[in-house]
Amino acid sequence: MSPFEYVIVLVSIIIGLGITLVLTGIAQLIREDRSITLFWPYLIWIGLVFVMHIHEWWITYQLKSTVAWRLPTFLFIILYPILLFILANLLFPDSWEKTNRDMKQFYFSLYPRFFGCVVVLVILSILQNIFISGLPIATQFVHVIILVVISAMLIFRPKAVVIHTAVAVLLLAILVISLIIERNSLLIQ
Question: For the chain, which residues make up each domain, given as ranges?
Answer without folding.
Answer: 3-181
